[in-house]
Amino acid sequence: MYALCDVNSMYASCEKVFDPSIRNKPVVVLTNNDGCICAACHIAKRMGVGKKFVPYFQVKDQLAAVGAVIRSSNYELYADLSQRMMETCERFAPHIHIYSIDECFLYYGAGSQLDYVPAEGWQAHAAAIRRTVWKEVRLPIGVGVGLTPTLAKAANHAAKKIEGYRGVAVIDNEQARRQILKQMAVGDVWGIGRRLSARLCDIGIHTAWDLSRARPALMKKQFSVLVENTVHELNGSVRLSWDDVRAPKQQIYSTRSFGQRITDKESLRHALVTHSGIAAQKLRRQAGLASAMMVFASSSPHDQEAYYRGSVLHRFTTPTSDSRVMANAIASVMNKIHKEGVRFYRCGIGLVDLVSTKNYQGDLFNTSKDNAELMKCLDVINAKYGRNTVHLAGQGIEQKFAMKRAFLSPQYTTRLSDLPVFECD
């Protein structure tokens, strides 16, 4: 059996955890640089003001009219609360797979007989997970239980979207499977996107139940093996799996738009070095080395000035994961990236042609300049005390390019100065 635990409107729910004054108000969270709506609580959605990826400036007056609370994305807070939620859910099952920042699968085993069955039954067990997460983390979640990951996803959809389930749904028999799948549109099935959904509707498959009754071989022939596996999963046969260790990335990019336009070369270099440090840390985490680095920066296509984009592919003499080597490489290509008079809106770097440290064979005539111990020390300190506690001087001290977050809430759990204060009479 599988259980899927999914936080309701993760970002908006996190904003309400430490601020009781906004728990009964519509809350909307914005993307980087306060550009678009990326999350909205159920109150905002009911009011019709929480549509995703709508530019904030277009609905600013509408949000103000209904008294919506606006928040900038507080990634530090969301990541910490996500970790606490995962640790709480982990106590309820032998195995856990973290699927995203707001979702995790719990796996209880399968075979001729279930390896684990809760004494209280699946319905009560799922309710206990939901209740415990709310009590200990104050995040509202939906819990769906099913014989396969896809059925667990379907049960979770019912728990959150179908009336009568109230946050918990279990598909452990034919009656429950039929009841839930008949109420699900085919586009709500895990792995069935908008375009695929339209194609399935064209041939008369409108609901998840219709898809479950399709012939798997025909679905493979007309669509793909993914759809074939989905049909099997909807009928209780496990076809999807995940590796205990995710495959390493083949490319690592770090890019972001600026909070305000920048024109000087030094500020642009600081921003690029900052991005190289972020990407290098991710590269070291997967025990990798980069043979080349893409460096790029551009103006905005929406500005009145002519659009400009500069990019350079820099190849390292020997593959590297050292932030210092990357920073020196950025300094050497700045004249090819920066252009006088350009108001830069965005920049970034990409580490490409990656190799594993375990498989890389060194070059006798080109020795590596990496200092693995120094980089390890850097990563340990920043992991313990927060990103950029220790960083390269090349990143600058006063960062003019910092992301715009005008509605940022306190980082209640990761910054000492933002710790909640309680006063007792």
From TrEMBL:
Q: Which GO terms describe its biological process?
A: DNA repair; error-prone translesion synthesis; SOS response
- Family annotation (InterPro entries): DNA/RNA_pol_sf (IPR043502), DNA_pol_Y-fam_little_finger (IPR017961), DNA_polymerase-Y (IPR050116), DUF4113 (IPR025188), Rev_trsase/Diguanyl_cyclase (IPR043128), UmuC (IPR001126)
Q: Which family does it belong to?
A: Belongs to the DNA polymerase type-Y family.
Which species expresses this protein natively?
Answer: Neptunomonas qingdaonensis
Leader sequence range is none
Protein name per UniProt: DNA polymerase V
One GO MF term on file is: damaged DNA binding
> Domain of life, per the record?
Bacteria
Q: Name one GO cellular component term.
A: cytosol
The UmuC domain, residue ranges? 2-193
Its lineage reads:
Bacteria, Pseudomonadati, Pseudomonadota, Gammaproteobacteria, Oceanospirillales
Report keywords, A-Z: DNA damage, DNA repair, SOS mutagenesis, SOS response
